[in-house]
């Protein structure tokens, strides 16, 4: 192990109130070239233990999660480009204090990745990603690290396949090396919603070619991660269907790379769409509504869980249409339905984003308040 330097600056603030004392820690790390073997990367907040747990055991502990959406995954060079503030330790502490067990950290890499043939990721960007991961691990939470808004170059066609696989392999090699010594609380998600953008089939399951290439890209990513060795030989890795869809023919098309038994299925189910994202239906809660949601969950359970594959709903939520009571009933039923079937779920929170006014945020990152704390609590309590 090569020498490394941690500069740990600790400020302890005690407040005499009903709030518990808080400790804010900022860690600055000095690393070598991001393309090296990663042996010197470690964290004071993660003991590096791999507990030889099954994916089902891991998912059972993940429980309710929260997405740090529209921050490190912005389509621009700065995490504040879409209007959200810089992610701080205090912000992550607040999510943990509320009771969430998992934080998914969506990440866009293309604005920080150099040209071929090496496709080197900027060291400063890897440092920043690791800093946020350490905020999560300091709270002993699960953290999901992914490749998010890189669809402009991850094109699922035979024509682009070789070039994409070359770059994707080099990207995941660097990510995996950076987190090589972290424990199994760090989970990799190879792709977010892999799809061919701006095509007629984008959101209806793609083409047979597209689904085939998504499977190939997952295998390329997983092979690159495993090849880095160390804890990555047995790290749990999430893989998604085409566009993370739950359409039956898309579920059927997913191929588990190498039949790897440390893979977890990642799905996104904004169900029902008119109520959750479409903004065309503000009511939810009839017996028919609940029956249809049960059918959606049972479809997932029958396809994967009953066949030995653990599942995480990496994104779900509902938009604010001045319909809090209906949203609360939906969130409660949804989370309970997922929990009852052994599925972890991660609420998509895009913050106070300038690119979206869909009201998906339950937490206000600007002033650190919970305008929809009842929804957050209902989701958390479903798993308790």
From TrEMBL:
Domain Glycoside hydrolase family span(s) in chain numbering: 78-353
A cellular-component GO term for this protein: extracellular region
Pfam families: Cellulase (PF00150)
GO terms (BP aspect): cellulose catabolic process
Keyword Hydrolase: yes
Residues that span the membrane, as ranges: none
PROSITE patterns, alphabetized: GLYCOSYL_HYDROL_F5, PROKAR_LIPOPROTEIN
Swiss-Prot/TrEMBL keywords: Carbohydrate metabolism, Cellulose degradation, Glycosidase, Hydrolase, Polysaccharide degradation
Gene Ontology molecular function: any one: beta-glucosidase activity
Stated family: Belongs to the glycosyl hydrolase 5 (cellulase A) family.
Name of the molecule in the record: Glycoside hydrolase family 5 protein
